[in-house]
Amino acid sequence: MKIHEYQAKDLFRAYDVPVPDGNVAFSVDEAKKNAATLRGFPVVVKAQIHAGGRGKGGGVKLAASMEEVETLANDILGMTLVTHQTGPQGRCVKKLLIEAGQNIAKEFYLSLLVDRATASIVIMASRDGGMDIEEVAAKTPERIIKVQVDPLMGIQGYQLRQVGFALELPGAAMKPFSQLLSNLYRLFIANDCSMVEINPLILTSDDKVIALDAKVDFDSNALYRHKELMELRDLDEEDPLEVEASKYNLNYINLDGNVGNIVNGAGLAMATMDIIKNAGATPANFMDVGGGASAEQVENALRIILADEKVKAILINIFGGILRCDIFAQGIVEAARKTGINVPVVVRMEGTNVDEGKKILKDAGLNLTSAVDLFDAAQKIAATVK
């Protein structure tokens, strides 16, 4: 789960990670009131959406007076902000962060991530802050520092110093930087984060280190342990179909293709998407209904996929284990009758009670095409959308 920059900075403050003074504003008048509480000008007017690249898209501006705050707030609030992370459709800006300007001497990049390959927390840092870290990684990978932290041991003093020395911080900034990174690690672990990113982390002219930006992702699978974090969720920033799917515990991700798919099991769903692509079609979604899906969940899954106007056909791929094929087939029949399927559907089923399941589908009188195996299913669905 992602949160906004202003929410991430509130979390940073709770863990003593230095950030600029500032507050969120939902209107132009509120933006002016917030600017008046800061110590003079310039102040920064920052669009709040769940995407990076806001500055390049025109969503981050510097105001040198209250009149400029009013003008910029008017311009940015309500705009459709397009960045490399929003896609061409962009995101509507509904809130702003009004923040004190800073005297920047140097910009750095700093992040913490889960490294599943090594079962560690990896600290990534670079002297090239304020830039797209992907571009730095592609063109000058030697300028990215990586330090792996064993989560059972926790972050150690020598690792804090290792990152600080690699960033070539002045001596006066080493202690505050070490404290910032230690607190950031504590925040990461305590809140089950999957990513914490500061870009840029700045060094001021008086050797202070401050998080000028803040991006936090939480592991959605751990949110049951953090009910207070759920209050930070902004449904306006999420795909409406994904929000709907989450109400029924369906693992759904909306994609850009034209073949909807319903699968039980995340690994099988990934393989199904690959085979759809190899057959010449493109998946419109990732959908894992889970091993023990009920008929109601199947109905909701089908309804959500049919609500996607991009979907021209549906591939259902089920391996019956915990979820028996006959139970799933009955769910498909009930769902089809309630939702009214208006696109071609190809079904591939294997596993427990597969013959009973196929008979239920055959006797239902629905416009369903059976497939012998997954390869056959992919070929049939690709031929259908072509």
Task: Give a written overview of the molecule.
- The chain has 386 residues and is α+β, with helices and mostly antiparallel strands.
- The chain has 3 domains: 1-20 and 103-238, ATP-grasp fold, B domain (D-amino Acid Aminotransferase, Chain A, domain 1); 21-101, Dna Ligase, domain 1 (2-Layer Sandwich); 239-385, Succinyl-CoA synthetase domains (Rossmann fold).
- Helices cover 36% and strands 25% of the residues.
- It has 13 helices and 18 strands.
- It has helices spanning 5-14, 28-36, 66-76, 133-139, 157-166, 171-190, 227-230, 240-246, 266-278, 295-306, 325-339, 354-363, 374-385, and strands spanning 22-25, 43-47, 60-63, 80-81, 91-92, 96-100, 104-115, 120-126, 144-149, 193-204, 209-211, 215-218, 251-254, 259-263, 285-288, 313-320, 345-351, 368-370.
- Strands 7, 8, 9, 10, 11 and 12 form a 6-stranded antiparallel sheet that branches. The chain has a 4-stranded antiparallel sheet with strand order 1-6-2-3, with helices on one face. Strands 14-16-17-18 form a 4-stranded parallel sheet, sandwiched between helices.
- α9 packs across α13 (374-385).
- The radius of gyration is 25 Å and the shape is elongated.
- The two termini are 36 Å apart.
